[in-house]
Amino acid sequence: AMEKSYVSMFLLLVAMSCALAKDAGTKETKETTAKPKLPQTLSRGWGDQLIWTQTYEEALFRSKHSNKPLMIIHHLDECPHSQALKKAFAEHKEVQKLAEKFILLNLVYETTDKNLSPDGQYVPRILFIDPSLTVRADITGRYSNRLYAYEPTDISLLYSNMQKALKLLKTEL
């Protein structure tokens, strides 16, 4: 009788561990078959589903070879204005959708290229560069003292500037 209860206890444990292992297995495959989550490092929260370039040089190369305009966002993690703009940018569905048509780069450091700071090194600032590698100094925000600055309330202006950058691409190149 004792042996029988050991055997049934053993079988119960085997059955349970099989069930648990199967369960763990299905959880794992669900996670891995889901859309691969890109490492947050390149998007830095500006749009995790967007494809971001790693360096200014890579962005220029991709812009030139794909014939897509480049959008560069200069920002700092500890800057409240950058954080507010990032939130507005990431949550704005139309901006996120339109951003797919750009080569994207967000920088938390200054580049040595003086063309990227035509009126100073402030954050946040957003510049557009066309595939001929020309900085579009003519696509500006609403502030005369910081031409390429955008506030969260300027997100619709940023959206229309993104459209302008794409339109200029078709008419000028």
From TrEMBL:
Keyword DNA repair belongs to the record: no
Signal sequence range: 1-21
One MF term in the entry's GO annotations: dystroglycan binding
Any Pfam family: Thioredoxin_7
Claim: Coiled coil is one of the keywords in the record: no
UniProt-annotated location(s): Endoplasmic reticulum; Secreted
The entry's keywords: Endoplasmic reticulum, Secreted, Signal
Gene Ontology CC annotations of this record: endoplasmic reticulum; extracellular region
InterPro entries: AGR/TXD (IPR051099), Thioredoxin-like_sf (IPR036249)
CDD domains the record matches: AGR (cd02960)
Domain of life from the UniProt record: Eukaryota
Family to which this protein belongs: Belongs to the AGR family.
Protein name: AGR2 protein
